[in-house]
């Protein structure tokens, strides 16, 4: 990753990248917004310990595949809150560590969690072809996938063991033989370095003495240079069979051999060839041996972990950090966890140049333009802090020309809004993002602010406006993306090169002006200059006047006689 974040002086050499800083001065190509929301949730059915992505359309069409529950299920409430306005959710499962449901003959559930217990797999002979089996995966009683695989059989062999012969001595290597039905096992011990062990079988196949094809598995054990080689014959053997233990370095050398007299019996096991199965959205198949015909292998033993620790949140933030998103939420009521998220957002913005915003519950002490604190708790179903899922989704999906001021809440949560109207301005003045009632069953946002309360000459109240932050974050991310991709290490630091950089910035800002996001923009608002002390660096100064929205209307009415 190229360098980025904030700068206080032109001292980033020898790093390469793009650094930025926001200053207020008295007044405040890609889609206008990308609608990407991130956050960690406790989930019933999701990957353990890794980031995953869900799009709004996939959630609507494939919720059961992605979450283990139907779209309207109570377990998907918070995802529905996010996707009221977001287009993409970058997620992480906080409650990793549950158990995967299993059916030992078939395989295990794709993910840990209770939904895995709703999986059944049937193995039935294909109605049109006697040599094929249909393997059907059911979830909640509904067929989700059918795979048609070849029929497989196992021949049980009766044998009489003959003599063993020692071949060429290779240092201290040794071999022992074991034959159990259709599996021939040769155990090698003390294999010298550089030698590769293998097994070959000679037997009567169709009346001809030949090497017999088959499937070989080599398990290497670390202690004593030990190898266990299992051989599954791929053709029937009648009469005498010779098993050879072979070591190969420059050429094959027979270490030991054993003869058997074999008699082939009827098939004793028939079913689907498991080696031909492919994992699907619900099951990771064993892919070894045969799966006998069965109307329904039931998966059991799946469980959802319900324990969430502070370390789970640390792991989530570390996993999510490399990914781009507009807004991230923390739906925890734990003060230590909230502090963790605030510290993380400050670090990634200042040190990584990752310009995103955080939504937390009841944490105005963050005092940070990148952190918005929801005052209203959720009551009834859900946890107090769950409203952050809706606000983060709305903020990431909103058009840059619009504020989250006076916006109707269109989610499913029950929100506490019984604050006296005279109290709301005071709450807002403390840095709270507040919802209130303007009519029966009409809950709305009050004003679009973050927690910034400490102002300086270079960092004043304009940055406490979330719309301003969304605009400047968008500008930075666009400029950094284009410059880092196309110009770093390529563009010459001469007048023509600096004009190219100037054009990059002007094009982005001019489009925002045309879209009504900026006010009074002209190309003279952007300057690109060389830094005389560093021929590898330039400085870009740009002025943004973010267009306001109507928050207050004053009406004077004159009554005329």
Question: Would you write up a description of this structure?
Answer:
The chain has 561 residues and is α+β, with helices and mostly antiparallel strands. The chain folds into 3 domains: 3-28 and 480-542, no CATH class; 36-93 and 306-445, Rossmann fold; 121-304, Immunoglobulins (Immunoglobulin-like, Sandwich). It has 8 helices and 31 strands. The strands form 8 sheets. Strands 8, 9, 10, 13, 14, 17, 18, 20 and 21 form a 9-stranded antiparallel sheet that branches. Strands 4-5-3-22-23-24-27 form a 7-stranded mixed sheet. Strand 30 (526-531) and strand 31 (534-542) form a beta hairpin. It starts with a strand and ends in a 19-residue tail after the last strand.
Compact summary:
The protein has eight helices and 31 strands.
Search tags:
alpha+beta, elongated, 8 helices, 9-stranded antiparallel sheet, 7-stranded mixed sheet, Immunoglobulin-like, 561 residues
CATH class of the largest domain: Alpha Beta
Mean pLDDT: 86
The strand count comes to 31
Give the termini distance in whole angstroms.
73 Å
CATH architecture of the largest domain: 3-Layer(aba) Sandwich
Tally of structural domains = 3
Helix content: 10-25%
Q: In terms of per-residue confidence, which ranges show pLDDT below 50 for 5 or more consecutive residues?
A: 11-17, 22-33, 205-216
Q: What sort of overall outline do the alpha carbons produce when their principal axes are compared?
A: elongated
Tell me the CATH topology of the largest domain.
Rossmann fold
The gyration radius over C-alpha positions equals 34 Å
Strand content: 35-45%
In quaternary terms, these chains amount to single chain
Name the structural class.
alpha+beta
Please outline the major beta sheet.
9 strands, antiparallel
The number of helical elements comes to: 8
């Amino acid at each position: 990753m190229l360098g980025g974040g904030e700068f206080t002086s032109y001292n980033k050499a020898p790093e390469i990248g793009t650094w930025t800083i926001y200053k207020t001065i008295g007044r405040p190509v890609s889609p206008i917004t990308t609608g990407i929301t991130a956050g960690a949730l406790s989930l019933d059915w999701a990957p353990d310990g890794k980031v995953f992505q869900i799009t709004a359309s996939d959630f609507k069409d494939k919720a059961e595949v992605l979450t283990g529950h139907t779209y309207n299920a109570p377990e998907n409430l918070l995802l529905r809150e996010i996707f009221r306005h977001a287009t993409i959710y970058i997620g992480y499962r906080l409650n990793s560590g549950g158990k995967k449901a299993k059916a030992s003959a078939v395989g295990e559930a794709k993910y840990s969690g209770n939904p895995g217990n709703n999986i059944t797999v049937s193995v039935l002979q294909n109605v049109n072809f006697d040599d094929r089996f249909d393997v059907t995966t059911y979830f909640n009683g509904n067929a989700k996938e059918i795979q048609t695989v070849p029929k497989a059989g196992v021949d049980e062999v009766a044998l009489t063991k003959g003599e063993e012969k020692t071949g060429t001595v290779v240092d201290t290597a040794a071999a022992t033989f074991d034959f159990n039905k259709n599996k021939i096992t040769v155990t090698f011990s003390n294999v010298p370095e550089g030698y590769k062990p293998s097994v070959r079988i000679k037997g009567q196949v169709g009346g001809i003495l030949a090497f017999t094809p088959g499937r070989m598995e080599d398990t290497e054990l670390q202690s004593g240079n030990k190898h266990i080689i299992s051989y599954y014959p791929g053709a029937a053997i009648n009469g005498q069979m010779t098993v050879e233990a072979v070591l190969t370095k420059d050429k094959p050398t027979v270490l030991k051999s054993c003869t058997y007299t074999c008699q082939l019996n009827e098939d004793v096991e028939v079913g689907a060839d498991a080696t031909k199965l492919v994992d699907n959205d619900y099951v990771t198949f064993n892919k070894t041996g045969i799966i006998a015909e069965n109307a329904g292998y039931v998966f059991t033993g799946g469980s959802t972990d319900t324990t969430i620790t502070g370390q789970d949140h640390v792991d989530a933030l570390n996993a999510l950090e490399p990914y781009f998103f507009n807004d991230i939420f923390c739906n925890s009521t734990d003060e230590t966890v909230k502090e963790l998220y605030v510290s993380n957002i400050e670090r990634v913005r200042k040190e990584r140049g990752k310009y995103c915003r955080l939504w937390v519950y009841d944490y105005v002490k963050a005092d940070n333009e990148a952190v918005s604190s929801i005052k209203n708790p959720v009551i009834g179903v859900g946890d107090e802090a769950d409203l952050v899922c809706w606000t983060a989704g709305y903020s990431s999906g909103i058009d840059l020309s619009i504020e989250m001021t006076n916006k109707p809440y269109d989610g499913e949560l029950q929100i506490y809004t019984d604050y006296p109207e005279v109290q709301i301005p005071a709450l807002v003045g403390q840095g709270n993002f507040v919802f209130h009632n303007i009519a029966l069953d009409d809950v709305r946002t009050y004003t679009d602010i973050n927690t910034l309360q400490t102002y300086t000459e270079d960092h004043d109240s304009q940055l406490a406006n979330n719309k301003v932050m969304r605009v400047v974050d968008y500008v930075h991310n666009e400029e950094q993306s284009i410059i880092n991709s196309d110009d770093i290490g390529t563009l010459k630091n001469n007048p023509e090169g600096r004009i190219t950089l100037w054009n990059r910035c002007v094009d982005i800002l001019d489009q925002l002006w045309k879209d009504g996001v900026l006010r009074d923009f002209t190309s003279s608002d952007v300057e690109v200059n060389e830094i005389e002390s560093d021929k590898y660096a330039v400085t870009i100064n740009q002025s943004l006047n973010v267009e306001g929205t109507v928050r207050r209307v004053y009406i004077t009415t004159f009554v005329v006689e």
